[in-house]
Structure formats: C-alpha cells, structure tokens
Amino acid sequence: MLDTSHIDDKSVVALDAETQAKYEHLQAILRAMGSVLIAYSGGVDSALLLKVAHDVLGDRALGAIASSPAYASEETEEAIAVARQLQLPLVTLETHELENAMSKTMSIVAIFVRQSCSPILSHWRKSTS
C-alpha cells in the first residue's frame, strides 16, 4: 500500500513553473465542470486526478472503481486502501462483464446453431412427417 504518512507540507517539493501552470489549468478545468465522477483504478493517474478533483470540488468529486472477477481482488483492495489513505471519496461498482460476455456469447452461439441447423431440422421434420 502507498504510505503517505511521512508526507507533510515541509517535505513537498515546489513545482517548476511549467508544471505549476499545468496543475492550475487542471484545477480550472475541474472547477468549470462543477462536479465529476472519476474512473479510479488506484494507479498514479487516476489517484492524482481524483485527489486534485476532490481538493477543488470537495464532495462534488467522486471516484468509482469496478470490482469484478475479471480483476484480481488484491489489486482492487489495494486501490481502495490508497483512496482511503488519501481520504478520497470512492464508490465500488460490482460489474458482471464476464457474465454479460458469456450470456452474449451464448446468445450468438444459439443464433448460429438455429440458423445453421434450420435447413437440417426442416428436412428432418419433412422426412419424419
């Protein structure tokens, strides 16, 4: 887990002018949006974006992370722990893309079988009647 307990205002290095300008531009974009929902993975990019959004917008910034059998549960737990440690608001959405993918695949297979077997079934029905 990312340990940020040792970071305080005295240990933070000032940003160079170009990076500071980009940071302020990001803040302005977020402020103009008014509220945001950030797709959060626990990685550096989404954690930084959620942190800046929360700093700028407060309760009008929310992170969302997907929890699914498609992702390692340890990685999801680690990402949630990082958000907690940074005191960032986060919702966990249970996704079922594997189930949905399987049902879509089965539907496609069923359609294929019906279309492929239809002439055979028609011929069989005629021959057995």
TrEMBL record:
Task: State a single Pfam family of this protein.
Answer: NAD_synthase
Q: Which GO terms describe its biological process?
A: purine nucleotide metabolic process
**Domain of life, per the record?**
Bacteria
Q: Where is the NAD/GMP synthase domain?
A: 35-106
PANTHER family with a match to the protein in the record = EXSB FAMILY PROTEIN (PTHR43169), NAD_GMP SYNTHASE DOMAIN-CONTAINING PROTEIN (PTHR43169:SF2)
Name used for this protein in its record:
NAD/GMP synthase domain-containing protein
- Look up and give the organism this protein is from: Dictyobacter vulcani
Lineage of the native species? Bacteria, Bacillati, Chloroflexota, Ktedonobacteria, Ktedonobacterales
